[in-house]
Fold each of these.
Amino acid sequence: MKFLVLGAGALGTAFGGMLATAGYDVTLIGREKHMKPIREHGLRISGIWGSHVIKNIRAVSELKSNYEPDTDVVLLTTKSFDTENAMRELQPLIGDNSVVISLQNGIGNEEIIARYVGKERTMGGTVITGFEMPKHGEVEVTVSADTTKIGELNNKITQRSRKIVAIFNDAGMPSDAVDNIQMHIWAKALYSAALNPLSAIFRVEYGKLTDPHSFAVIEALIHEAFEVAKAEGVELFWNSEEEYSDYLRREQIPPTEKHHSSMLNDIKRGKKTEIDFLNGVFVAKPFLKQMLYQQLFTFGKNLN
């Protein structure tokens, strides 16, 4: 199976690199300052997925001249604010039998992808794993709170989703095929929408947000997020906000307690953050008084 990773930052490079170690044909499309060291010296991956030096991987910075028509899977790992532009460029190139899988943050990426290639060629995914880029050409896989989830938009587990997940697992990336990917996307949104910006604002690891004062803010954000989900008719895995707060504190934060949020890393590098996609959905309902999310959203925008 042939893979193309579009938007190969830390996450995309790690996924592509692990697939290449398992013998799959992989092309990375990313920024030249990151791709050039990979071409010249190979890609180095370290951390919880093992230590690897990968030479058998294409690393380029331009899509059009490097896209191969027989590509089976496009892993879309751009920042969410780049989804539209990425799909606009990809649409005239992608084959009828290819599929685009979003492994991005936020809510709404799959809908954008489907507008360009159709729902039948779109899949959703969630990744709750930490990736750091110590320097260009190197990626460290630091923490993980869950397996990667992959799912069709029609809420069915298909031969295609099973095959892709089997390949991910074969490549050393623990993954599951699911029949409710939107529930998983919303579950990650609950996790990310509070922890990611708070970690950036306070400039701390996730584990430092469990102190009583910080977690009280998180619980207030969870309350507002549940109100939005209820208004949207979204089914969640948890019956109450209290149940989710307990799950977040006991199950999700501990394995990622040393993680610094992607938003904090973006701010440190002077890059645009994903605040619109991480928190925008929770402030886009004028009939709901999402006061804390609105303040967090405004503060996060000012950090850009």
Amino acid sequence: ILNTTVCIICHTGKYCSHPSLEIPLILINQTKTWREALSYCRENHVDLVSVHTEEIQHWVETAVYYASTANVWMGLRHTCTLNIWVWVKGEFICYQNWAPGNGTGVEDCSRGERTGAVQSGSKQWVSLPEDQRLNFIYQTQSTAC
């Protein structure tokens, strides 16, 4: 029996646990567009991960180590109309970990909405067109794995 409050489950079947987080994070090693990943999460689980703190970022970094794509979707979306980044549940960004040249200026919305991913290598966030096909991380509401 696992008596911690969070698990990061990766495609390898390994998990890393940390008792101070309240939600499990799960890496899905399938490639989907951002919208497909969001739909998958909402149909089967809860939502793409929202990174509100450095501590959650640390556990996202642990999960992306096992990814099969260079970037991994998280629940970050740019609204071209308002030129702001928000999490999928509507919260504004407080904690940030953008790679240089990403997320802090005017976004190129010519290919549609921009969405956020974390790089598997540098572990920094990048702004990408939502039609790229990447692995993704979701979070559940349950505290049991």
